[in-house]
Amino acid sequence: MFNRSIKLIAFALVALLWIVACSPQAGNNNAATNSAQPQTLTVGTNPWSGYSGHHVAVKKDFYTQAGLKIQDILFQSNTEEITAFLSGKVDLAWLTAGDAIQMAGKDPALKIIFVCDYSNGSDGIIGRGIKAPADLKGKTLAREDVLFEKVLLRAYLEKGGLTEKELNIKDLPAPDAATAFSAKRVDAAVTYEPFLAKAAKEGGGEVIFSTKGTNLIADVLIARPSLIANRRADLLSFLKAANQGIKLLKAGDADAIAAAAGRLGIKPEELREQLAGITLFDIEGNKTIGFNPENPNNATKSFELVAKAAYDFKVVPQPLDVKTLYDDSLVKSL
Question: Helices 254-264 and 52-59 sit at what angle, rounded to 10 degrees?
């Protein structure tokens, strides 16, 4: 009995030593498992219908299938999203090129990595009783104090020899500007879909100027150089997944349109109508048009126009070289 007890004690000691010896290796395995978990990419959008490809990719789990973990934030205005990006709360931001150029005044290192779309009528100015730009003189107009809206308004006012100084400007986010027009608190407003057409109708007015047939407003995806350098593989996977969503929208897929409409809080038929006023770009479109210097409709010309306005409006302290604002290497490698 005594010998048996000794043996049992010896066995227990050996077992204990085995557990202790194996514990560090188990810890290393856990660390390896944890390191394999995908890091979160925080992605910001606002209620612009052109970003619907991203919403489709989220809803249909294209990002998850690509091995990505996405924190998706829908901001209620461009201003809120700009603030979040500049404060480091957002990794990737779907915004206008004008927003990117505006932000470059504070963070010149940021990069445009993808051209999402050209507005083709879904950004515009609505007015009541306004038949020509000169009719806006002395009138009250609501617009958000962001560069792309100022550029759009400037393009219209110049046709009548006017500047913003000859109007009574109310600084309101695009959704609120549309609401103010609907309620007839202002004579005109700069806004975009999904607010543009609805507000024009409710406010007893019409769209007096829009981006139809232009590349005046380009929408883009923005990242920081550190993200491009440190998480390049993730960004390539992100673009491929977003591309899946964009292609479904371009094909008019009913489920994709319903998914994106749900995220935007509108009806699928409304989104379908709004997308008719937007030229969506997939990866191939970025290569052949967006970042192609040989294409006369390339995005660089739009960037240059907005960059000039940014300096004129004193949004940036010095003229910008737009070629430093984008990195097309990701798109070109796909």
Answer: 100
